[in-house]
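A reminder from the course coordinator: this example appears on the midterm review sheet, so study it carefully.

Given structure:
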């Protein structure tokens, strides 16, 4: 019996680099989209697109949910010339992703120097920025990390209303299910739209979303919000630290300040200013709880200017101080 003929060279070859404590959702969604498009029928061979899992050493990499993934090759052994993209999946926290610059920076810089396009998914963008590999590029981020990224890397432009962004030899993605949308766009450029769309029905995905897709869930009040109010809430969330006023917001939307306040009072039960302050405090509370950044840094992220203003508003909204919240979190940690 003759041996099966070798598969032809794939249209696109990807090197996948998950950081320790990576999120399974974007990793699994991206990888399964590759699998469906990689072969005819449901054979799952790497025929039209191929991928290899890269680790710093030979050890498996643990995801944030505790699932362990085996690597195919290591940073010392990999032949970067054999691939068309290096795709990095971020760690569970921004701090962890940035801290991996010493361990992962060399292979990222080596890949970039050889002309290999870099793809950053979720907060892997912080690692690339820390390594100096996003200068002059626009970056798509998870909405929760936009203010933090702008504070840490003020000279890097943020595509704040995009779920993914293709900017020459850098591709960034907000994470979550947006990794599927980004994978479809990437595959379309190399394998054609028909093959890129293959398997979406099996994944129960109606259609890939455009990079500028607007998330209704970002609006806070769901699909029942009026068009102007939905736009205002989305702008508020993406401009926590931009120094805009409610009047500026109304002008961007194309209505008067009084009309905007009336819409907020009718549907949110508070003024536009109060709603924006509430959003700032929710973000600050999340950052106090989930980061080690100083109060001054967090105040900058939410447009409050100084730590004392943040502490005063924080106590008014939550009945306790940021320090007490952090102390309670540290006490509860194992």
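Designed residues:
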């Amino acid at each position: 019996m003759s041996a099966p003929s070798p598969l032809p060279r794939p249209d696109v070859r990807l090197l996948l680099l998950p950081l320790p404590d990576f999120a399974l959702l974007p990793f699994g969604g991206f990888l399964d989209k590759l699998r469906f498009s990689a072969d005819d029928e449901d054979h799952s061979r790497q025929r039209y697109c191929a991928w290899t899992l890269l680790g710093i050493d030979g050890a498996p990499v643990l995801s944030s949910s505790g699932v362990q993934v085996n690597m195919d090759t290591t940073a010392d052994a990999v032949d970067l010339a054999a691939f068309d993209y290096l795709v990095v999946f971020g760690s569970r926290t921004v701090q962890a992703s940035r801290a991996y610059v010493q361990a992962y920076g060399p292979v990222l810089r080596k890949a970039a120097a050889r002309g290999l396009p870099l793809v950053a998914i979720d907060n892997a963008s912080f690692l690339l920025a820390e390594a100096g590999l996003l200068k002059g590029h626009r970056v798509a981020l998870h909405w929760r990390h936009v203010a933090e990224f702008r504070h840490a890397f003020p000279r890097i432009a943020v595509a704040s209303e995009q779920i993914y962004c293709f900017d020459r030899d850098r591709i960034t993605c907000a994470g979550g299910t947006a990794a599927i949308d980004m994978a479809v766009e990437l595959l379309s450029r190399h394998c054609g739209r028909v093959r890129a769309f293959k398997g979406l029905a099996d994944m129960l995905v109606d259609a890939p979303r455009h990079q500028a897709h607007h998330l209704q869930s970002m609006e806070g009040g769901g699909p029942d919000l009026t068009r102007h109010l939905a736009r205002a809430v989305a702008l508020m969330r993406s401009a926590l630290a931009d120094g805009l006023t409610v009047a500026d917001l109304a002008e961007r939307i194309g209505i008067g300040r009084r009309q905007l306040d009336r819409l907020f009072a009718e549907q949110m039960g508070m003024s536009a200013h109060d709603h924006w302050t509430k959003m700032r405090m929710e973000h600050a509370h999340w950052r106090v709880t989930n980061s080690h950044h100083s109060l001054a840094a967090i105040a900058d992220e939410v447009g409050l200017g100084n730590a004392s203003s943040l502490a005063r508003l924080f106590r008014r909204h939550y009945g306790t101080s940021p320090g007490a919240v952090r102390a309670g979190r540290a006490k509860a940690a194992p």
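The CA atoms of residues 260 and 266 lie 10 Å apart. Residues 219-224 have pLDDT under 50 and may be disordered.
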